[in-house]
Amino acid sequence: MSAIAALLIFPGGVFLLLVGMIYEWIDRKLVARFQNRMGPRWFQPLADTIKLLAKEEVVPDGVDARLFFTLPVIALAGAMTAALYVPLVGFEASYSFSGDLIVTVYMLSLLTLGTGLAGANTLNRFSLIGATRTLTQLFSYEAPFLLALLGPAIVADSWQIGEITDYAGDHVWLLVTQPIGFLVALIGLMGKLELPPFDAPEAETEIVAGALTEYSGRGLALFHLGKGVELVIGLTLVAAFYLGGVTHPLIFVAKTLALLSILAGLQALMTRLRIDQTVGLWWRYGALLVLAQFLALIVWEGVM
Amino acid sequence: MPTTPTQENDVFRIPIGPQHPALKEPGHFEFTVDGEVVTAATLRLGYVHRGIEKGTEGRNWIQSLYLLERVCGICSHVHATAYCLGVEKLAGVEAPPRAQAIRVLVAELERIHSHMLWLGVAAHEAGFDMLFMYSWRDRETVMNLLEGITGNRVNYSANQLGGVKCDIDGEQADDIRVGLDFLEGRIKHYLDVVSQDTMFLRRTRGIGVMTREDCERMGIVGPTARASGVELDLRVHAPYAAYPEHPVNLVTATAGDLEARFIVRVNELFESIRLIREILDDLPEGDLSVRVPRRIPAGETISRVEAPRGELFYYIKSNRSDMADRVKVRTPTLPNMASVLEIAVGHQLADIPMILTGIDPCFSCNDRMVAINDPSRGEQAWTWEQLRQYGIEYYR
Amino acid sequence: MRLGSMWRDALSALVREPATQQYPFERLQAPEHLRSKLHWDLTNCTGCGLCAKDCPSDAIDVIVLDKKARKFVFRYHVDRCTFCSQCVMSCPKKCLEMANDEWELASLTPDDFLVYYGNEEDVETVLAAAASNGADASSTDTE
């Protein structure tokens, strides 16, 4: 019974979707205020979602209809499953086992993978270019992002999220000891969510809506929800690992919101990178930096 | 499984337009890409052909002014100025000095509004919405100034045949000065941003380079040409209206890339502000207009002015009636459009919207009937029936 | 070379009111020279019709009922007007004016866009003539 509740109400399900929408609203509102605009009203993401869910899904010619309908579901399901293993809003994770960090990161990639496949499934030329870019970007930030999350795992000597957060809570904030990892993790999250400046895969002035150009109704709503969920989980992971572990829920939420406002600021201030520049940035600087830190950590552990 | 044009001949073509988020007006581009790199480009125009030139032949000289003002929504005043100067030349009258000064003043305010609009659009194409929002917010200042002077925000209708309609009193002059002081500070900031922001420069520096020779060969005009070092500005080289009394300093750059186009346009804003201040301090006294006869003496003339986008050309022919016999307009976007197709090749797909915006295109301005010389068919001109048939086939 | 060179704008915008104007709730004051709805004054009008002749968008009909008795009705199509004020310039007797009030011209019915100026009985004559000629008022041009 509690398993079903965990899946449907808290921490998965309805609660997660709502939190995702709230975070999305905060993000949009902040960017708008940075740009001296009003920004959307608080219920706008909810209204968008309801509208999209109510709309007819137009299945374009030449796509595999089964894939077209299942990919958004898989993407959202992947993101929501990941939520079961992370300490959402400062509460203990619902499930935990040794190695759940790897599973979580894998589940989080499902969304991007689903987006890419959804784009490749259609014959739309913008979708195809968008899918190529989405998958290219997936391969470029995924390794640095994973490495950035593994840094805390190394020092905690565990692959279990609960143990890593316990370690982070008992020691000085890992932000201080592993600043590069924190930076790469934060920016990796932006790359993962295709937020500006890493929004080349959905650059509207070039390829309209990228991989999701052909999605109009439920599918689009599910992908958007998935993105909101992933934003919450990503922020939770980074805050739990680098900003002093799991603490009182209110403090923890405040930490994630602080991270979110940093993300919003970066989104507002940066110009969109071309896809080759995105890849170059990650592999030339991101991956190397985080590897250097990784080596330093391993050496440090060996010395201790 | 149905096939799409993407699979023809193993080339992958990206259509941009006629409806596309990067285009604010309809035009159809097809870019053949190899991965992300563009290997060929084609262009089809004519989606917003409105028959304005033909329309002038059924209206009297005064009504045509307002029709021609609507050739372009952004630089409406220069169209009206070019037409008025041409008709006044045909009629053998000259607008009073105060009217000429106000014409130039409104034209320069319009240049500020047009360039700031472009700055925002170009920043948006690069994915830099921050600059977009702020430059458009500040552009409201100049829109309000224009509204305060002429009474309209977009198609100002400041001109009339023989002069201008609106005067500038001391209070308005002060408003303009205050607005310009604010704008000058903001524009300095934007110059810093476009010439120093690392992320933004990654999208502009060295992109879409056009050499001086390229520009001269393709007949590029306006700030696009000046960014490549072509010294061509009608306000300097063929001054009209009040420009002889208020000389303009030529603004050029040599790099010829997108960054240079940004810098040239932003620097032109400073020049416009300087000019407006100079005119305000030294506004000649006198009448606002002279009488222009309803029937214009027979004859033909050309009239050239510097629009925000480059040289604007009017040919006007009169056969001593109250209507124009022929009005021909060449807007600056038409020659500039050729450059997009040429410099796009070899660039990344992501740079294409930037390159396209770099010329500050205005599609509805340049969409007009062009006589097609087809030597293979030996045809020079089309009969009405052929034209009609062409239209039917085209829109099928 | 600087990263994020617009950060000052971003931070100051946080403490500043958004530039967006909440239109129906707050309204800008119209500038003094704004061109809004056209007004016609019968006093000096000679019924010459120059305003209608020069109007680029066919928004003015001057209906002459009786030239000697100076019975004129001025019909103004607000929806066609482009607010260029050429009629104001063309009028030799300065009977026309574009005042800066009445610029909110949106309406739910097309009837509001057809404005008659003139003496009441003259307007009624024109309207009665239009009604007897059928619903289409524009077919009663008697310039």
Short description:
Chain A has helices at 2-8, 13-34, 44-54, 65-82, 100-121, 125-156, 161-170, 174-177, 179-192, 204-207, 218-242, 249-269, 275-303.
Overall structural class of chain C, as computed from helix and strand content, comes to alpha+beta
For the termini of chain A, the CA-CA separation is 46 Å
What strand order characterises the main sheet of chain C? 2-3-5
Helix residue percentage of chain A: over 70%
Shape field of chain A: globular
Strand content of chain A: under 5%
Envelope shape of chain C? elongated
- Contiguous runs where pLDDT drops below 50 for at least 5 residues of chain C: 137-143
**Helix/strand order of chain A:** HHHHHHHHHHHHH
Identify the CATH architecture of chain C. Answer: 2-Layer Sandwich
Total number of domains of chain A: 1
Structural class of chain A: mainly alpha
Taking the alpha carbons of the first and last residues of chain C, their distance comes to 69 Å
Largest sheet of chain C: 3 strands, antiparallel
For the biggest sheet of chain A, the summary is:
none
Please report the total strand number of chain A as a whole number.
0
Number of helices of chain A: 13
Count of DSSP strands of chain C: 5
Largest interface: which pair?
A-B, 32 and 36 residues
State the helicity of chain C in percent bands.
10-25%
What is the strand and helix layout of this fold?
The complex is a heterotrimer of chains A (about 300), B (about 400) and C (about 140).
Chain A lengths: L1 H7 L4 H22 L9 H11 L10 H18 L17 H22 L3 H32 L4 H10 L3 H4 L1 H14 L11 H4 L10 H25 L6 H21 L5 H29 L1
Chain B lengths: L11 E5 L11 E7 L2 E8 L7 H5 L4 H9 L6 H16 L5 H29 L3 H22 L8 E2 L2 E2 L5 H27 L1 H7 L7 H7 L3 H5 L7 H4 L20 H24 L17 E9 L2 E9 L5 E7 L2 H12 L7 H7 L4 H4 L17 H11 L2
Antiparallel strand pairs in B: 1-2, 2-3, 4-5, 6-7, 7-8
Helix pairs in contact in B: 2-3, 4-5, 4-11, 4-13, 5-6, 6-11
Chain C lengths: L6 H9 L22 E3 L9 H5 L5 E7 L4 E7 L8 H5 L5 E3 L15 E4 L2 H13 L11
Antiparallel strand pairs in C: 1-4, 2-3, 3-5
